[in-house]
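Translate sequence into structure tokens.
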Amino acid sequence: MTYVLGGAQTDFARNFGKEGNGLLEMLAEVVPAALADAEVPQQAVQVAHVGNLAGELFTGQAQLGGLLVAAVPGLDGIPSTRHEAACASGSTAVLAACADLESGRYDVALVVGLELMRNTDAQTAASHLGSAAWVGHEALDAKFPWPALFAEVADAYDQRYGLDREPLDAFAANAFANARRNRLAQTRDWSFPAAAFGPDYELNPLVEEGQLRKNDCGRTAEWARLEHLGAAEPGKGGELILSGATAAGGALPVNPGGADRPRPPGRRHRRKDAQRRRSPGRRHRRSHPGRRRSYGPDRQRRRLLHHRRLAGRHR
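Result follows.
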């Protein structure tokens, strides 16, 4: 059994670059907070995985597995790996940690996802993010590659099924409403008039790429994802959105805590940072050659019950 014991998140409204901080300071802040929330000492962590898309481009910093240990010296000596898979970088880090735990090689894994992208101008940031597209083949003449690619998705969907603006507007409005309930969201204090989610050329202008507008240029990908994941039949994602099922409190809430991925009915959200695989009566595996930690049966049972309670608390 694998448990998620705890986690932490930085305030997305902060601008670490303007504060004079970088990736190292971000790690030094969030990792100890996550371990404290999980009640796991640094010395108990046996393996670490870091998800990051473009640290080299935005900061010039690669080797983020090593930077993690530089930021949190108590992790010295453990294997630490950086994972890159565009928007799925954090998810692949979680999958790798789960594989480590399920293999039985390690008992405690740390997963970190971080990006620093607000330390440059918008055009440079857009170019950096374009590296996640197929360079030399996609968005060749686009000033903003990803809005251009999202617009292509919108055009293709429109040709196949017809693209209705009303679900796009509802999806964007729901996303910002969810952010207002998240005390760490970047847009938690932003406010918009209702017309900002419609075809208003001043409040919701067209972007430079394609037919999409400012507040819906990424929504087509999320709409299509609902259908790809089987939450709606092809061409029926708009109906699902307008039914209210994807809103907070609906049957299939989408993005209630910051993730784009819809959650199946009945499945609770889990925070992902510190993970532990434990079995009753099982000793810790070695985290250092020649060093073994073990506990008596009574303490093992108490610790297992404690971690189960923590796992339930963070669902």
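Note: The CA atoms of residues 58 and 117 lie 6 Å apart.
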